[in-house]
Design goal:
By secondary structure, the protein is mostly beta strands. It has one domain. Helices cover 0% and strands 39% of the residues. The chain has a four-stranded antiparallel sheet, with no helix packed on it. The N and C termini lie far apart (26 Å).
Length: 64
């Protein structure tokens, strides 16, 4: 993360979300695809899918 960059904390746990990166369909790097709360009991997340922002979707493990 760049110096001076801060993300807002989770409303419940007041911990910062962890940014996650991914790769697009054509293999291009997506710097910030999702942010998830770092508290193990929380599950709060924000995702960007095809330009659409979703909040609180169920998080699962990918088996790709």
């Amino acid at each position: 993360m760049e110096q001076g960059s801060e993300f807002p904390g989770c409303q419940k746990w007041k911990m910062g979300p962890v940014p996650l990166s991914d790769y697009g369909r054509e293999g291009a790097s997506i710097r910030y695809k999702a942010w998830v709360c770092s508290h193990p009991d929380c599950g709060f997340n924000i995702r960007i899918d095809n330009g659409e922002v979703t909040i609180g979707r169920q998080i699962g493990q990918s088996y790709k």
